[in-house]
Specification:
Layout: H1 3-17, H2 35-50, E1 54-57, E2 63-67, H3 74-79, E3 84-90, H4 103-118, E4 127-132, H5 145-151, H6 156-161, H7 170-176, H8 188-193, E5 194-202, H9 207-211, E6 215-221, E7 224-232, E8 236-237, H10 249-267, E9 269-279, E10 285-286, E11 289-298, H11 301-314, E12 321-328, E13 331-332, H12 335-344, E14 355-358, H13 363-369, E15 374-379, H14 395-412
Parallel strand pairs: 3-4, 3-5, 5-15, 6-14
Antiparallel strand pairs: 1-2, 2-4, 6-13, 6-15, 7-11, 7-12, 8-10, 9-11
Helix pairs in contact: 1-4, 4-14, 10-11
This protein binds (2S)-amino(hydroxy)ethanoic acid and manganese (II) ion (2 copies).
One manganese (II) ion binds at residues 94, 101, 136, 387.
Length: 417
């Protein structure tokens, strides 16, 4: 296969994956352990098989497609000091998300393997193309659940007990997908194979558009977290209940939303309340309970935490309870690895291969937090928009991303211990 053919391979895979989980809005609804997820897993297995890669599923259901021509097995190589180089990303989406967030990294990784083979590279270290499951946490509420359980950052008992909007537990969904919920947990055997991880991802902002560069290397991920706010009330008739007699749970929720926005502006953070659940949910019934989920992030960890503290204090007046559902501290990617990637990409200055921080969370951040040297490559998104069907990357920039990832991978697997 020529290098040009590896780009054609990217285009074919991209076209194959496009229809899976796409909805009328043009966006995607690809949630973990659903029919769409099964189709994505089957697609991943098919691409691995087509390349003769050894497909392994870890205790969490993350898929690892290994390329190692020996001697011995991947584990023999690791024992001999040739730890694996993993590349990949996720395939799931937020509700009505875009096509590129996640899948661009997985498809580019398979295409990068094709490019190495086209160039006759014989890896000196095992290579894995990885599909991390449930990165968005759209169904069960915890972002990067696949990599968090894998690394132990999310306790297996807590993961098993998570429930979706229909009350289905993670354990039941995992079992319904043919897997043993008791197997869930930190997977030492899998982690031992990974010497470093490089995740290619569509940029979720417009820095590369403004800089006029197709690819960037990541420096860090902002601290970010998710909190659940529960507001109590009393159901009553919307027409016959006097205002002074109401216990309207929606008022506390409304106060949270506006206070979060004002507080974020004051503290130089961002805050979003993107999901709400109302009981009983009738237009003519005063809400007896409202749950709102806050997502807040920022470059300054202290300010993010202070904003949440302020909001927790404020909502006491509404009788609310607050539960932290996830927290990821500042992630600083491995600077040696990032510098190495920039050298490989011929970066002579800040412009040719920019270095960007991001407010978006990624599995790369979770692996980095688990002590695995990790780096990210961003591919230009001319819309600057993400988590929206308009999210986009031009084909030539996608190809530039494949070529950048292949160049970095070639360098990383040339390692001899
Ligand atoms: O929320 C995030 O930053 C990522 O899209 N999971
Ligand atoms: Mn996302
Ligand atoms: Mn993503």
């Amino acid at each position: 296969m020529s290098t040009a053919a590896s780009l054609a391979s990217f285009d074919r895979m991209w076209a194959d994956l496009g229809p899976v989980g796409r909805v009328a809005s043009g966006g995607y609804r690809r949630f973990v352990w659903t029919r769409e997820d099964a189709a994505l897993r089957e697609w991943f297995a098919g691409e691995a098989a087509a390349r003769g890669l050894d497909l392994v599923e870890d205790r969490v259901g993350n898929q690892w497609a290994w390329w190692w021509d020996g001697p011995g097995t991947v584990d023999d190589a690791v024992r001999a000091g040739h730890t694996g180089v993993a590349i990949g990303s996720h395939l799931d989406s937020v509700p009505d998300g875009g096509a590129f967030d996640g899948p661009l990294g997985v498809v580019s990784s398979f295409a990068a393997v094709d490019a190495l083979r086209a160039s006759g590279v014989v890896p000196g270290r095992p290579i894995a193309v990885t599909h991390f499951i449930d990165e968005e946490g759209a169904r069960f509420g915890i972002a990067c659940a696949g990599s968090r359980v894998l690394t132990g950052a999310l306790d297996a008992d807590r993961a098993r007990a998570l429930t979706d909007g229909d009350g289905v537990t993670y354990a039941d969904a995992f079992a319904a997908a043919g897997r043993d919920p008791q197997a869930l947990g930190r997977d030492e055997e899998t982690l031992a194979r990974v010497g470093c991880f490089v995740e290619l991802h569509v940029e979720q902002g417009r820095a590369l558009v403004d800089l006029g560069a197709p690819v960037a290397v990541a420096s860090d991920i902002w601290p970010h977290g998710r909190w659940r706010f529960d507001f109590p009330g009393e159901a009553n008739h919307a027409g016959t209940t006097r205002l002074e007699d109401r216990k309207d749970a929606m008022l506390g929720y409304a106060d949270l939303v506006l206070a979060a926005r004002a507080g974020a502006a004051e503290r130089g953070c961002v805050a979003t309340v993107g999901k709400v659940a109302v009981t009983p949910g009738g237009i003519n019934a005063i809400p007896s309970h409202v749950t709102g989920w806050l997502d807040t992030r920022g470059t300054d960890e202290g300010q993010v935490r202070a904003l949440v503290d302020d909001l927790e204090t404020r909502v006491q007046q509404h009788g609310a309870t607050v539960t932290r559902e996830s927290w990821t501290p500042t992630t600083r990617f491995d600077t040696d690895l990032a510098d190495r990637l920039r050298r490989v990409l011929g970066s002579t200055d800040e412009l040719s291969v920019p270095v960007l921080g991001t407010g978006a969370g990624h599995d790369a951040g979770i692996l980095s937090g688990a002590g695995i040297p990790t780096a990210m490559l961003f591919v230009r998104n001319p819309t600057g928009i993400s988590h929206n069907p308009v999210e986009h990357a031009e084909t030539q920039d996608c190809h530039a991303g494949v070529e950048a990832l292949a160049a970095c991978l070639t360098d990383l697997v040339a390692d001899q211990p």
